[in-house]
Amino acid sequence: MKEALFYFHGQRYQLLAFVIMSNHVHVLLVPFEKYLLGDILHSWKSFTAHKINRILGKNGSVWHKESFDRIIRNENHFQKVLAYIRQNAEYGPCGPDTYWNADSDEISSDTVTMQDTPPIGTGM
Question: Which of 11, 13, 33, 71 is deepest in the core (most CB within 10 A)?
Fold first, then answer.
């Protein structure tokens, strides 16, 4: 999953933070102009599902069709989401290598490069 998250970081989106849990992932990102959130999520799900199925010798769906995306409205909301991701990393079962954020404790919505990307649902 980590490989998939970093693959288009800096090209299609600005990855800000993530934590990989045993059966889901929390990600904070800003899609760049021309890249839809639904397309980004589809590429992650497709890449990781193929890899997981190959490792397990299985076929079929790995991820739920639905994704639970949120639009960050302000600095307070941004900090709450970032804190939630950090909390999951502390208490999650997957170890320290499953958490990453862009700038340690210095990250805020002021340090994010915002693009003119309209809020769009994932359609997944």
Answer: 13
Structure tokens that stand for 53 in this block: 């199925």
What would the 3-class secondary structure string for 68-120 be?
Answer: CCCCCCCHHHHHHHHHHHHHHHHHCCCCHHHEEECCHHHCCHHHCCCCCCCCC
Give me the tens of pLDDT residue by residue for the chain, a chain 124 residues long: 888 999 899 999 999 999 888 888 899 999 999 999 999 999 999 999 999 999 999 998 888 888 889 899 999 999 999 999 988 887 766 665 677 777 544 444 454 544 444 444 433 3
- Measured distance CA(9)–CA(63) in Å, rounded: 21
β-bridge mates for residue 102, sequence order: none
